[in-house]
Amino acid sequence: MKIITSIEALRDQLRGQLRTVFVPTMGNLHEGHLSLMRLARQHGDPIVASIFVNRLQFGPNEDFDKYPRTFQADVEKLENEGVYVLFAPTEKDLYPEPQAFRVSPPDDLGNILEGEFRPGFFTGVTTVVLKLFSCVQPGAAVFGKKDYQQLMMVRNMAKQFALPTKIIAAETWRAEDGLALSSRNMYLSPAERAEAPALYAELSAVAQEVRDGHLDIFALEHSAMARLAGRGWKPDYIAIRKRVDLQPPSAGDLAQNEPLVVLAAAKLGVTRLIDNLEI
Ligand code: PAF
After folding, report:
1. 127, 159, 190, 230: most buried, per Cβ within 10 A?
2. Which stretches of the chain drop beneath a pLDDT of 70?
3. What is the 3-state secondary structure (H, E, C) of 41-76?
4. What confidence score (pLDDT) does residue 56 get?
5. How is residue 149 annotated by DSSP?
6. Distance CA 209, CA 218 (A)
């Protein structure tokens, strides 16, 4: 595997490659990321991964400084997955001058759910993804469904800007007890780690209620949040939304079996976890 830091060297290395599949990450790789690499392999060749902790998508009080950085271990894992190039730019490589041009996500998707609780997050994500796409010029790129809204945002951006990159969705990778794998799980104390699967359990319970025909969405969301709060969590949201645009379903949507997803974000101690489940 070639480890490349500069945009120029990356361009030289990838010149003429038309079927590159790209997997952008912020490092601290776990099985979930590796499953993205395996899915990438089914969609083209070569595979290019990136590791870049993108300051633009962190709020001023978020965990940019303490975000886990485990570069050597990550390199070994990617080598084992047959990744051809690891693009690992420094901040100076990717943002040699302040990134003044930025992507402006639409309010209806950008300011809800994660966007409501993390102002500027999706501007930061879409800006870096567009820039990374411009560096790698992939035919396809893989994003996990764990970050459901991010996946939708990237998909819509690719469509509206007519990017020549197909966006591929990868299923969420879970621990045996249901907890979605995330780099942020490593902030959890042993007691919090034992409690953490309760988030997925609540999502599963809500999904089951909807499938059973309990369609008072507001009541379902509120009782799930109250149960989590009762166990010591601080929920930001549990929201039943339409898969197509992440807007709340109307009574008519529910009557017509509109495909739904339930999404959640909640803090356990200092750790903010997100998860979702398609219903
Ligand atoms: O999901 C992530 O790890 C990041 O948001 C991404 C897509 C690599 C952009 O920094």
Report:
1. 127
2. none
3. HCCCCCEEEEECCCHHHCCCCCCCCCCCCCHHHHHH
4. 98
5. H
6. 12
33 is catalytic: yes
Work out which ligand 1 atom sits closest to the CA atom of 154.
7
Which pLDDT belongs to residue 40? 98
Q: Whose CA is closest to 175, among 146, 139, 138?
A: 146
| Chain CA centroid to CA 127, Å | 14
pTM of the model: 0.97
Spell out the residues 6+ positions from residue 195 whose beta carbon is closer than 8 angstroms to its own: 231, 232, 268
Q: What residues does ligand 1 touch, defined as CB less than 6 Å away? A: 24-26, 54, 57, 125, 128-129, 147, 150
What pLDDT does 215 receive?
A: 85
Residue 54 Cα to ligand 1 middle (Å): 8
Q: What is the pLDDT of residue 33?
A: 97
> Hey, whose CA ends up nearest to atom 8 of ligand 1?
25
Residue the block writes with tokens 């930025």? 102
